[in-house]
Inverse folding.
């Protein structure tokens, strides 16, 4: 029996326990038994296609308080992924600060039509986190010059310190220009840095925080001008600054384009919803991406970089409270990829996949033991004209073991887990019922905000302005991607609440409404105390009646209620908001 035949049979045996449908049979691969990584054989894509890279898989030991305080120390391999039966990368529990590991990533990506990596990059006023993957691994890889890269600035809260003490995020002009100096000197000057018409592509995860910290769009434009002056002084072009989120006000603030990290979820018309501790079908996720792409491109004020999802399953991190998208197959992923092509913005011809290697969140297209190269092969099939027949190479087992940050004993313990059942949690049947323009419940409301007195009646705005009340109508416009209207001290028992009704008019193609709540017993607002519903996309007045069965955290006495309607640029008018009692039997 040939070496290649043994590889094929071994891999198919490893994969048989996963129940892969015959139509999605796992492609074979060939072991590369020699030293080093063979040169990539790139294939040209129809578009410029990238993938987000989550760094930090080099981490080994730490204080054991991951993920909150020691992001540069504690290993997700050790504490998360290896503690569950799946997933299992073909490269094992690798150290991604090794150039050779990055060479395998580069080779696999280029041979399937992916030409750039967007590295998650953690920086706050000169302090870095998880930088070794990029700076010691990718940039020192043998084939790095063949792969484009860009920076995705994850400008959110982390274990930031200053003089040994917790530090806030610093988005001042001084901090931004100092960061730009570092970016220019260490990344932007490199010939393989991703550009659009010569402008270095730079992404921000929380663009609204930058705009708000600088006093609004005009203030941030001034800050951006200061950043660009740094680049011009070094002979570089201005930033192609990409906002993650809606494309509304970000054009006013000087951003060049917009995209998203993902759109994991389900449309309001789905029988299922995304919910912690439960799962939802992958097919419904595909439909939701198509819905969100359509909404983004119809009302876009900026060029769009189309985001393509892979999957979500954060059981390695979240355990019992995980949110899982179940039933992924290469065929469904291919459908998603193919649909993305109809939304490509011709001004930049860019798309990005989330993600290459988010193993702790189950978002990956990097080859794994369950599907092998099946997802990358679908990328090659959809985005390139290259022949489907090709040979995928992988390093030998001894080499994979040498990449590992785990000891042989730890790897054996992880392998023992792989035979254990790993069923997803039950599907989350949608518990929130939304009816539009239906008759309202009989009787007077338990509580109502009618806006007849010319005031907001206690509703507090965030990322919406101006907030005006006139002629019994509250009107406002979302200035960020997290617009909020919040009221406190509601004082209504959920058990007595039959429905929440509101009459509103939103601008055409407003993305929907998220509802958050807190109770007297559980006062914090959080994602596990929320639900969402879609809006009629015609810009006309409609009455929405929300009914939800009391269960779990939707119980007790309501304290806060928050409506997040639309995204940046959407206008909203609210005639009234009412709370009705449960009908008596």
């Amino acid at each position: 029996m040939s070496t290649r035949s043994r590889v094929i049979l071994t891999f198919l045996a490893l994969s048989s326990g996963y129940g892969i449908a015959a139509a999605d049979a796992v492609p074979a691969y060939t072991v590369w038994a020699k030293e080093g990584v063979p040169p990539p054989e790139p294939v040209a894509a129809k578009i410029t296609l990238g993938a987000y890279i989550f760094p930090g898989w080099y981490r080994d030991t730490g204080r054991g308080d991951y993920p909150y305080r020691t992001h540069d120390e504690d290993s997700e391999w050790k504490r998360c992924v290896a503690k569950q039966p799946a997933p299992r990368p073909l490269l094992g529990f690798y150290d991604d600060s090794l150039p050779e590991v990055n060479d395998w990533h580069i080779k696999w990506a280029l041979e399937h039509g992916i030409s750039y990596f967007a590295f998650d990059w953690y920086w706050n006023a000169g302090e870095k986190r998880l930088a070794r993957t990029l700076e010691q691994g990718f940039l020192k890889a043998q084939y790095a010059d063949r792969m484009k890269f860009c920076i995705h600035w994850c400008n959110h809260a982390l274990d930031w310190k200053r003089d040994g003490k917790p530090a806030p995020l610093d988005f001042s002009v001084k901090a931004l220009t100092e960061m730009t100096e570092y970016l220019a000197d260490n990344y932007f000057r490199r010939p393989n840095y991703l550009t659009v018409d010569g402008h270095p592509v730079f992404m921000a995860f929380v663009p609204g925080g930058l705009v708000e910290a600088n006093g609004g769009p005009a203030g941030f434009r001034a800050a951006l001008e200061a950043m660009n002056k740094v680049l011009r002084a070094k002979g570089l072009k201005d930033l192609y600054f990409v906002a993650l989120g809606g494309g509304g006000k970000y054009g006013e603030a000087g951003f060049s384009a917009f995209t998203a990290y993902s759109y994991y979820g389900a449309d309001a018309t789905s029988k299922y919803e995304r919910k912690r501790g439960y799962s939802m079908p992958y097919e419904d996720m595909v439909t939701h991406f198509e819905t969100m792409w359509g909404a983004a491109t119809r009302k876009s004020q900026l060029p769009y970089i189309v985001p393509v999802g892979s999957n979500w399953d954060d059981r390695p991190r979240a355990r019992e409270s995980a949110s899982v998208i179940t039933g992924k197959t290469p065929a469904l992923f291919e459908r998603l990829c193919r649909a993305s092509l109809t939304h490509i913005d011709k001004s930049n011809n860019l798309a990005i996949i989330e993600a290459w290697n988010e193993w702790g969140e189950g978002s990956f297209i990097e080859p794994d033991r369950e599907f092998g190269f099946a997802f990358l092969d679908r990328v090659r099939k959809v985005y390139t004209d290259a022949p489907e027949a090709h040979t995928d190479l992988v390093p030998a087992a001894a080499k994979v073991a040498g990449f590992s940050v785990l000891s042989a004993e730890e790897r054996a313990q992880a392998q023992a887990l792989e035979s254990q059942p790993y069923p997803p949690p039950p599907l989350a049947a949608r518990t929130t019922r939304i009816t539009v323009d239906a008759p309202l419940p009989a009787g007077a409301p338990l509580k109502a905000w009618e806006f007849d007195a010319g005031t907001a009646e206690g509703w507090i705005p965030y990322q919406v302005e101006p907030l005006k009340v006139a002629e019994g109508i509250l009107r406002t416009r979302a200035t960020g991607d997290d617009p909020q209207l919040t009221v406190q001290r509601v004082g209504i028992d959920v058990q007595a609440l039959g429905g929440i009704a509101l009459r509103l008019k939103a601008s055409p193609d407003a993305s929907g409404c998220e509802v958050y709540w807190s109770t007297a017993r559980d006062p914090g607002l959080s994602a596990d105390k929320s639900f969402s519903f879609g809006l009629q996309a015609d810009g006309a007045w409609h009455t929405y009646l929300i009914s939800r069965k009391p269960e779990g955290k939707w119980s007790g006495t309501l304290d806060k209620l928050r409506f997040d309607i639309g995204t940046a640029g959407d206008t909203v008018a609210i005639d009234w908001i009412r709370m009705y009692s449960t009908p008596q039997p």
Notes: Residues 1-23 have pLDDT under 50 and may be disordered.
